[in-house]
Amino acid sequence: MRTRTLIPFGAAIGLLASASAVVVSQARTPYLLVLNKDDATLALVDLKTNAVAGRVGTGEGPHEITVSSDGAMAFVGNYGGQTPGSTISVIDLAARKEIRRVDLGALRRPHGLAFADGKLYFTAEVNRAVARYDPATGQIDWLLGTGQATTHMILVNKDASRMFTANIGGDSVSVIERGASPLAWNVTVVPVGKGPEGIDISPDGKEVWTAHSRDGGVSIIDVAARKVTQTIDLQTKRSNRLKFTPDGKLVLISDVDTGDVVVVDVAGRREAKRVHVGKSPEGILIAPDGGRAYVAVSGDNNVAIIDLKTLAIAGRISTGIDPDGMAYVER
Fold it and tell me: What is the DSSP letter of 18?
């Protein structure tokens, strides 16, 4: 025979209220993290309201930012100004404060950043190198030279077994792959166009695209073959960043000199549209749901919001002076 336990009405209401409280407590707020180079600050933008919810000071000339896998910490490369920078700011996002400024010693101009497998990978432009910082020990525990001038941006896969760097001065992309042991690495230098800077990997992991800042082209690299299979002439004046949409259908490229974001149809390998966003667009971040792109318009001191369905500007956010690098986090 089945037995049933009857819960008094008042207790049932209490249980429902408790369940609702749990749901509310688990609700997370999306934030856009924006670096303001001239202000030397990180602005935290609440994307529910598009208002700046807080600011944190960084080192001089913060250019790029990434976030730990758990969303607790942000890491900022302090590129410097006339004097090359040599520090990385570690920021507690809950407390909204810098908790450590990592001294990189002889490594200069930290730039591209990526967090993978519990560690921070970054480029050191002056040193033509990629290095790794372990937050658990507070130490730089790995360093690899690329042999290429101005190693600028970096992409790293989830287990940190493969990475790609855009080498502006070397007119190349370095494909860096772990060998038979964690200490063995293989580097393939892939020649591309003039001044590769913006770089991203397709969502399916099969292609790396890099935009040339000095000849208006985009090189498409077959990851498996480690070679360029196609070059698209987009006639950009000075491309800066390149990002895929999450569905892999579009690529967005910022053109600093024209003030445009060039939208590329990936399947057709052709320009689909140009969206004029303002003076000197630089960093690009695309929301994980693929609905919007955020473009740091450094010359106008704002972040333009592009609706990726209509490919029209949907708003602007004032974050500080000379915005550039951005990251996304939910807390």
Answer: H
